[in-house]
Write a sequence for this structure.
């Protein structure tokens, strides 16, 4: 994987990515756990405030260049996350990568005449690299202080199954309000959760970027809102 700077990242003519920044809705931080996405409790407990947060979306809606061709159509990938530098937190809210989008949207799934998927992917595409570029830009000299990574409202079926198995829920839906269940490094459940697609993204974020390589994941919390209908993960990093 090539090394990218933030300037490379936002060079829309080269790779099709654009970045937009806004203020997250206040009720994201205040909804009760009875609501579907009522995760204000853990944010308040960890001191993650709305006033210090920015919701930033990186989207690849433009054509891009890779080693196969100079004018690939957009992958329609997008990553929306809340970044809070003073409170050292990233909250993943809506993240859909290039592989998923190209294999699930109409243009990618209905057209059988397209080139192989591997030749239609942007070089810069992983959640871990996109999030790092945005975090590093926002955090500047504090970029190595990242502590909390939330994965909010898990939709991936495989990850949800691992969460349920880790919780011992069997065939029943897992349901446990914050702080839910917490697994420390070395536990079998910890390893299983870190091996999910959501956990691997966190692992790559740490190992692929020198400023974070001295950190490890020290614990994983799994918890729910709305009576178990929404699953959430919290990966806590060492200081």
């Amino acid at each position: 994987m090539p090394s990218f700077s933030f300037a490379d990242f936002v060079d829309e003519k080269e790779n099709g990515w654009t970045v937009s920044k806004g203020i997250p809705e206040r009720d994201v931080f205040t909804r009760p756990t009875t609501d579907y996405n009522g995760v204000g409790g853990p944010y308040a407990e960890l001191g993650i405030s709305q006033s210090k947060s920015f919701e930033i979306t990186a989207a690849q809606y433009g054509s891009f260049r890779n080693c196969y061709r100079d004018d690939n159509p957009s992958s329609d990938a997008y990553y929306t996350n809340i970044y809070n530098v003073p409170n050292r937190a990233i909250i993943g809210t809506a993240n859909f990568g290039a592989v998923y989008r190209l294999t699930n949207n109409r243009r990618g799934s209905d057209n059988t005449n397209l080139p192989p998927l591997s030749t239609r992917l942007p070089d810069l595409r992983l959640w871990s690299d996109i999030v790092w570029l945005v975090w590093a830009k926002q955090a500047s000299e504090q970029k190595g202080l990242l502590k909390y990574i939330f994965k909010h409202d898990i939709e991936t079926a495989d990850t949800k199954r691992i969460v349920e198995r880790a919780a011992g829920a069997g065939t029943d839906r897992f349901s446990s309000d914050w702080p839910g269940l917490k697994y420390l490094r070395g536990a079998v459940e910890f390893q299983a959760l870190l091996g999910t697609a959501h956990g691997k993204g966190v692992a790559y974020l740490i190992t692929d970027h020198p400023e974070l390589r001295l950190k490890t994941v020290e614990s994983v919390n799994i918890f729910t809102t709305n009576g178990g209908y929404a699953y959430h993960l919290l990966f806590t990093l060492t200081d």
